[in-house]
Amino acid sequence: MTAATEPVTTGAEGAGPPAPRGRLRESPWATLVAIAFGVMMVALDGTIVAVANPAIGASLGASLAELQWVTHGYLLGLAVFLITAGKIGDRFGHRNTYLVGVVGFVLSSVAIALSSGVAMLIAFRVLQGVFGALLLPSAMGLLRSGFPPSKLGRAFGVFGSLIGAATAGGPILGGILVDAFGWEAVFYINVPVGAAALALGLWLLAANRATDPGSRMDVPGIVLISVAIFALVWALVEAPAAGWGHPVTLGSLAAAVLFGGAFLLWERRPEQPLLPLALFANPSVSIGTLLTVAMALSLMGSLFFITFYLQGIQGMSPARTGLQLISMTALMAVTSPIAGRVLDRVGARPPTTVGLLLASAGMFMLSRLETDTGVVFMSAAFVLLGTGLSLIMTGATAAIIGNAPVRLAGVASAVQQAAMQLGGSLGTAVLGAVMSATIVSTLPGHFAGAGLAEPSADDLVDMQSVVAQGGAVLPEGASPEVAAAVTQASNLAFMDGLHLAFTIAAAVMLAAAALSLLMRSGRMTDGPAVHI
């Protein structure tokens, strides 16, 4: 396996000449319309379920740990299967893989809504994640093979806009559905959305053509990478509760390193590996992957705690919290298509670097939040962050997928999606550990400063989880004065952790901006792609 270069091409390699473009279903923009509902369905499910968790817990008698696995189970199925799903799309055709993903996602959503117990619900959430993994890389693969290189940036920008709009609308729609119909409605909503996705896919998507039809499925590679990603995600999910030094966490991390190393060694052997390592010989692909991880780490890890700040410290309602965050999420939906047009003109490097600088500035502003920060300051920070993220997502996606050969479009798309998922999990775990450690170290001092007795080591372990969510553990029968002092001390400890976590996130973005300067410059029509 050697790395060489070839010009970026359109159409499926080895699949004959492209079909005439005269009919609607042969238009690349028809492809974008066809996958819109499927992509938005998966993105919507990432945020809409969080609103339903309290109702699910009350209805099924689920514990907090079980409710967390309603989210973690979906993430696990999605992350573990992404690379394999990308290969399936390349091998058997992205159109058919996408349609199977849509049907499976809808059926598993119905099964979740009909679940009679939390264990059954979590199992079907894992299955839903597996079908989501089939859907997303194949949708990106359809864009990569359907659009000419000169318009890929525009297509990725619109793609990002769809995800941003669905993500922004998830909590609002979820709240309406839960209030009106119950928690089951947030899963039943996928039935009409999925039906529209299936109908549009059957109507507008061109005939199924495999981009890598002669390849074989690398079964040992699939097993090794699946176990490695499973172990890594499991460790990141369990670490905040069990602790980084817990045997389960350490054992899972060791298994991830062992099987990940074995996967890298194995992929050098077969003639048709699951993930050709020469794909990363192109600096834009490898750097784009690292930038995606850094962006997701900073964004997901930080936003996990900003909601606790807005509700616990600022006292905002869930609805007002969603409206406050719209200045970021809605802006991403609006500016992503603009970012795509810019990318088509100047290439991926300039907008990606500018986006990382803007996002770093926005994150730094958020690291300066206080308990009484005004709405104008927060909104300005979210505007910087949203504008920056739209540039980063579009640029990094184009760098990874646009510089990979068309026959590996599914695998390249899966790499981009896996980097997003793993970066988000890593950010939540690492920045969560920073928050917890800071709260434990500063809370006694804030108690002493308020004239309160310092909590014991055992009390701190019990208190830090509540304080990390913007709350306070009040002594039984505490007077209003003592309750106010405990709340203030707890809020100050929370802010200490938030300041440090967000400063780290801003620094990661800034370091990523420096790394982005090493990406290949120029438009995708000007440069080579990796040939494997």
TrEMBL record:
<feature type="domain" description="Major facilitator superfamily (MFS) profile">
    <location>
        <begin position="31"/>
        <end position="524"/>
    </location>
</feature>
<feature type="region of interest" description="Disordered">
    <location>
        <begin position="1"/>
        <end position="23"/>
    </location>
</feature>
<dbReference type="Pfam" id="PF07690">
    <property type="entry name" value="MFS_1"/>
</dbReference>
<keyword id="KW-0812">Transmembrane</keyword>
<keyword id="KW-0813">Transport</keyword>
<feature type="transmembrane region" description="Helical">
    <location>
        <begin position="287"/>
        <end position="310"/>
    </location>
</feature>
<dbReference type="InterPro" id="IPR011701">
    <property type="entry name" value="MFS"/>
</dbReference>
<feature type="transmembrane region" description="Helical">
    <location>
        <begin position="185"/>
        <end position="207"/>
    </location>
</feature>
<feature type="transmembrane region" description="Helical">
    <location>
        <begin position="97"/>
        <end position="116"/>
    </location>
</feature>
<keyword id="KW-0472">Membrane</keyword>
<feature type="transmembrane region" description="Helical">
    <location>
        <begin position="498"/>
        <end position="518"/>
    </location>
</feature>
<dbReference type="InterPro" id="IPR004638">
    <property type="entry name" value="EmrB-like"/>
</dbReference>
<keyword id="KW-1133">Transmembrane helix</keyword>
<feature type="transmembrane region" description="Helical">
    <location>
        <begin position="422"/>
        <end position="443"/>
    </location>
</feature>
<feature type="transmembrane region" description="Helical">
    <location>
        <begin position="29"/>
        <end position="52"/>
    </location>
</feature>
<dbReference type="InterPro" id="IPR020846">
    <property type="entry name" value="MFS_dom"/>
</dbReference>
<feature type="transmembrane region" description="Helical">
    <location>
        <begin position="67"/>
        <end position="85"/>
    </location>
</feature>
<feature type="transmembrane region" description="Helical">
    <location>
        <begin position="375"/>
        <end position="401"/>
    </location>
</feature>
<keyword id="KW-1003">Cell membrane</keyword>
<feature type="transmembrane region" description="Helical">
    <location>
        <begin position="322"/>
        <end position="340"/>
    </location>
</feature>
<feature type="transmembrane region" description="Helical">
    <location>
        <begin position="155"/>
        <end position="173"/>
    </location>
</feature>
<dbReference type="InterPro" id="IPR036259">
    <property type="entry name" value="MFS_trans_sf"/>
</dbReference>
<feature type="transmembrane region" description="Helical">
    <location>
        <begin position="219"/>
        <end position="237"/>
    </location>
</feature>
<feature type="transmembrane region" description="Helical">
    <location>
        <begin position="243"/>
        <end position="266"/>
    </location>
</feature>
<protein>
    <submittedName>
        <fullName>MFS transporter</fullName>
    </submittedName>
</protein>
